[in-house]
């Protein structure tokens, strides 16, 4: 499974950035910050422009991060996929046939080890490794899990994108517009 060869997943922090992405050549786009009242219309707008939205479920204002919220997102909002740090959100996305992306904040070796245990349960379609500027960790996580990696967080330069991809990441998420091209 991949993003049809798309190596950069542009991530919108605002409606304005999302609107700019709708006219881009990207198929897969990420919505980071959003409000529950806007979600359904934003996802429908993206679909009407041929885009597949990956929604960061943990960053939806006005929505709790529980299984019911995840069911609402899957059944009513219907994005292409959900990104979350939460086990129940990832499992619900998988159950509903959405792309499931388990977001991991790898701060230290304890976080890494507990993440491996979490991944045994969730078995997501992708793992988003943060920060994405650790090529050796990207390589290790992919080798240990066999799950495709998306690198994200603190990626500021084109070389960091290239390094993450060389380390085995399938794609890189970034909110830096200069890296979207």
Automatic annotation (TrEMBL):
Q: Which UniProt keywords apply?
A: Glycerol metabolism, RNA-binding, Transcription, Transcription regulation
A Gene Ontology biological process noted in the UniProt record is: glycerol metabolic process
Enumerate the transmembrane spans. Answer: none
InterPro entries associated with the record: Aldolase_TIM, GlpP
Q: Does the keyword Cell membrane apply?
A: no
* Top-level taxonomic group: Bacteria
Please verify whether the record's keywords include RNA-binding: yes
Q: Name one GO molecular function term.
A: RNA binding
Q: Where is the signal peptide?
A: none
Matching entries from Pfam families are given as: G3P_antiterm
Name the job this protein performs. Answer: Regulates expression of the glpD operon. In the presence of glycerol 3-phosphate (G3P) causes antitermination of transcription of glpD at the inverted repeat of the leader region to enhance its transcription. Binds and stabilizes glpD leader mRNA.
Q: Which protein are we looking at?
A: Glycerol uptake operon antiterminator regulatory protein
């Amino acid at each position: 499974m991949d993003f049809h060869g798309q190596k950069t997943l542009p991530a919108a922090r605002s409606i304005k950035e999302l609107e700019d992405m709708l006219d881009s050549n990207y198929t897969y786009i990420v919505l980071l910050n959003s409000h529950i009242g806007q979600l359904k219309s934003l996802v429908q707008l993206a679909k009407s422009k041929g885009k597949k939205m990956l929604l960061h479920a943990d960053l939806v204002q006005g929505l709790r991060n529980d299984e019911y919220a995840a069911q609402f997102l899957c059944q009513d909002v219907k994005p292409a996929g959900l990104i979350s740090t939460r086990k129940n959100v990832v499992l619900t996305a998988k159950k509903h046939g959405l792309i499931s992306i388990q977001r991991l904040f790898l701060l230290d070796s304890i976080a890494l080890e507990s993440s491996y245990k979490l991944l045994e349960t969730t078995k997501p379609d992708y793992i988003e490794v943060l920060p994405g500027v650790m090529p050796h960790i990207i390589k290790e996580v992919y080798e240990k899990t066999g799950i495709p990696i998306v690198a994200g967080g603190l990626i500021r330069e084109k070389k960091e994108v290239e390094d993450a991809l060389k380390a085995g990441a399938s794609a890189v998420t970034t909110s830096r517009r200069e890296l979207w091209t």
